[in-house]
Amino acid sequence: AQTFGGDAGNVTIFGQSGGASKVAVCMTMPAAKGLFHKAIMQSSSSHLRLATVENATAAVARLLAQAGLDRTQTGALQHLSADELLAAYTGAVAAANGNDSFRPVVDGATVPHHPFDPAAPDIAHMPLMIGSCETEKSFYDITADPLTLPLDDEQLIREIAHFVGIDAALAREVTADYRARRPAASGRELFNVIGSDHQYRRNAIEVANRRAQRGSAPTYLYEFTWKTPVLGGMLKTPHTMCLPFVFGTTDIAKDFVGSGPEQAALTKAVMGAWIAFAHVGNPNHADLPTWTPYDASTRPTMIFDNDCRLEHNPKAEDLECINRCPPFISDMQWP
Question: What is the structure's pLDDT at 2?
């Protein structure tokens, strides 16, 4: 997470991915109240539920075991090399079926509750901008084995069932539902859309809904759908795609986003929105259509693409379908 602003009375805190989750934590901490005044959360996947004390304790036990230590030897962790510590961490996450409890903990004091908990006090009554990329999961296709990248129907159902945490029957229904609106999509493309909705988009929308229902300060919801042309277009709109446009660094990132008039125009729209929001808590500016705050009835969402536009309740069928599945992170999924 990082901050915008040299004026201590007008600070915007923002973050991408894990950094965005840390922004949510800061919005939850009584000790952080008043230290910042606006927040931006980009592509956050686990901001609705943090680790519990029990989760963290179990994670530490797994870490110690991977390092060949027991619970009485926690001090020995300080003497491990960086490579040894990283190997122990990687092994501990793998031992937990990929769940990573090495994250901020709801301890009842410093972090008294999960972020955006409807039953918790709204201590961070400030403007928020939040959103995600359409195919966040496609980022990982870069490093995938080319032999396993394609997914036939049965492989797709198995992968969706495993990732989303549902049985094969529901995975088959979800896959068929998404495919009905994307008949030309490959198995891998469907996995990336469904996985991205499950891990990222749904949680961003849920935050916007919860804030709107409790009358919080304005929330501005977005989705990044512009597709990068590099690598033959295989990546679509992957995780971190928004960053070069936010910071105006598309020239440096041309191997990731390409270059040309499309990139220049989108930079003006995106960077202008982030700058405007950091200044005044409202992302509207001359190079972007009017962006209204989120409300739970019409769900206005800014779509960042070659044709930037405000849509109301976009891809409603997808959202209805993925909401039939369990949350990306829940108590049931924490080992």
Answer: 64
| One-letter amino acid of 67 | A
130 bridge partner residues: 41, 221
pLDDT at position 331: 40
Better-scored residue on pLDDT, 22 or 124: 22
Cα gap 38→248, rounded to integer Å:
21
Q: Is the pLDDT of residue 333 over 70?
A: no
- Which of 191, 123, 116, 197 has its CA nearest to residue 159? 191
Q: Can you tell me which residue has the tokens 């924490």?
A: 334
Cα 272-273-276 angle, rounded to 5 deg: 80
HSE-CB at 265 with a 13 A cutoff on CA atoms is 10
What does pTM read for this prediction?
0.91
User: Each residue of 166-179: b (16+ CB within 10 Å) or e?
Assistant: beeebbbebbebbb
Residue 284, sorted as left (phi over 0), alpha (psi -120 to 50) or beta, turns out to be beta
Give 111-169 pLDDT, tens digit per residue.
Answer: 999 999 988 888 888 999 999 999 999 998 887 777 778 899 999 999 999 999 999 99
- List Cβ neighbours of 291 (8 Å cut-off, separation of 6 or more): 220, 273, 283, 284, 300, 302, 310
Provide the 3-class DSSP secondary structure of residue 310: strand
Output the DSSP codes for 248-286: T-TTTTHHHH--SHHHHHHHHHHHHHHHHHHHHS----T
pLDDT of 334 > 70? The answer is no
**How do 128-133 and 38-42 pair as beta strands?**
parallel
For residue 42, what are the contacts with CB-CB under 8 A and spacing of at least 6?
A: 14, 15, 16, 17, 20, 130, 131, 132, 242, 243, 246
Mean pLDDT, rounded, of the chain: 92
Does residue 199 sit in helix, strand or coil? helix
Structure tokens at 91: 């092994």
Two tokens, residue 44: 């956050």
Instruction: Show the beta-strand stretches assigned E in the chain.
Output: 2-4, 12-16, 38-42, 51-52, 105-106, 128-133, 219-224, 300-304, 309-312
